[in-house]
Task: structure prediction
Amino acid sequence: MDTIAPKTPATLPFAAWQALSPAAAAHEVHARVAALSPPLRAAALAWLKPERDLATEIGRWNGLTSGRSQRAQVSALHPLHGIPYLLKDLFDLAGVPTRAGATFLDQVRGTPTRDSALVRQLRALGASCAGKTHLVEFAAGLFGDNSHYGDCPHPQFPDRLSGGSSSGSAALVAAGVVPLAVGTDTGGSVRVPAAWCGLHGFRLTPGDELIRDAFPLAPTMDTAGWFTANAGDMLAVWQAVVGKLPKQTKLRGCFLPVKALGIPFDPETAGACDRAAAAFANPADSATSAALLDSWQGAIEAYTVTALGEAHKVHRDWLAPYRGHYEPGIWQRFSDGGRYPAEQLSKAAATIGKVRSAFRQYFASHDFLILPATPFPALRKADCTPEARRQLLTLTTPASLAGLPVLTRPVPLPSGLSTGLQVILPTASSPVVPWICSGGLPVVRSLGEG
Result:
């Protein structure tokens, strides 16, 4: 029997936040934080900007919006004006410690004196940072657990977890505290919590300017991303961050049915994912399915070896002196990352090359691929097992190894829980994004699939 949380405040869309005065918006954020359950507040929120400072930041456009033409100009140049957002605590905010879900990082790095590039871009677009969110320690997990600050509960089902590593960001958007939160995704850390918390999520691509100065897990695979509570807000952020709406064209894609994926699925989740995917595309034909699935053999091992090898390089100088400060399991995995033999690293690189080649071939004739984001809804802590992690990674590692952007669309379940779809894209600026966000159109269904 699920424990259902007391009713949380309704999520407000961007337009409703933008209609508030700066003081009212800042007060609303603080009031919504105060209404959170103590376990959720402690586990999700790392730092909250004082209400007066937040009101000042939100109000910085006020002097430019006295007339209709000025308001239109501000909206065009700063489309996210008036929007408060929360920032995953891997990104630097000047004057605020970056702890990355750990307890000692600020001791070895000091307090940042400069904002991350992503913070600067969102400020230029008009958004206002309201605070920072907790995460799985050093972003090394998919469940939302953290022994330092508390396991992050699902806002509506507090006996379940919100998903990680971007646990606090997803949970606080789902709880209605803010309409937008920043996350990161290396092996699924936007996709899984978006699916579990019933949110829209977007992951960008590795190495772009918005992730390069974030504290890394695995630099060649880390990506920046964000969460919103509805499709319209997702499209607004995507358009602001990625660029202008592309010209609409016929879009070709397919989905891989659950039965083709070879892992156990919760039956309710399986049916919901297949039905939701069928609204946008047809199932992949046997040749397409076989080519993709064959290239993904060994993907989890390749991801693990590559990610932990890179994480070891990031942490190697701290593993001995700060051993007692790490969560033991994460310390062990980061330590093991320095012990992979050359042939294992070479095998991982070959698998990554195979995955990328298969996706290049696929996207030569398709515009998107749809997969389930998770094989089950949000889990209880006791169910967060290595096998559950492996099942999640089976679905998320292909796009991670290929370095591809992914739009996550929530899929509600009859139980009240949720899962999601991954819409894997060849580029972040794909016209598939506005099409999916608008619910899809019959005239642009998949072509050439059985």
